[in-house]
Amino acid sequence: MDATPCSRVPDRDIFTSTDPDDIAAAKAVCSTCPFTKACLKAALELGEVGVWGGTTKAQRTRLNHTPRQPGRPRKPITHGTRQGYFQHRNRGEDACIECKRAASAHSKRMRASKRQAVAS
């Protein structure tokens, strides 16, 4: 005869049900069990569905989640260029004076070329 509280539950379907009341009842049974940690460990290893070790599948998924590895390192800023100006902006930084000057010079050249095109 099993010594676990879940083995003595007449309706074992509560452990696999999606009904919130059944889930709460299953968790209540798990809260009285001395094997909760072992049960949870087994469910994490095997990917079980339903309530195991007092947790739902969604809760175990969050427990098993490993944080995403950081992406590749950022490219160094190309100072003194228009691209460098936008790299500063994309990082939420104030652009350095060299990059501001490069972006300003580019804008001036673009405005001058537009004026020249309109005058022709």
UniProtKB/TrEMBL annotation:
Compartment(s) where it occurs, according to its Swiss-Prot or TrEMBL record: Cytoplasm
PROSITE patterns, per database record: 4FE4S_WBL
InterPro entries: 4FE4S_WBL, Whib
Bias-annotated ranges (Basic residues): 59-77
Pfam families: Whib
Listed cofactors: [4Fe-4S] cluster
Keyword 4Fe-4S: yes
4Fe-4S Wbl-type domain location: 5-62
Keyword Secreted among record annotations: no
Source organism superkingdom: Bacteria
Keywords tagged on the record: 4Fe-4S, Disulfide bond, DNA-binding, Iron, Iron-sulfur, Metal-binding, Transcription, Transcription regulation
UniProt-annotated stretches for the region Disordered: 57-83
Similarity field: Belongs to the WhiB family.
Protein name: 4Fe-4S Wbl-type domain-containing protein
Organism for this UniProt entry: Terrabacter terrae
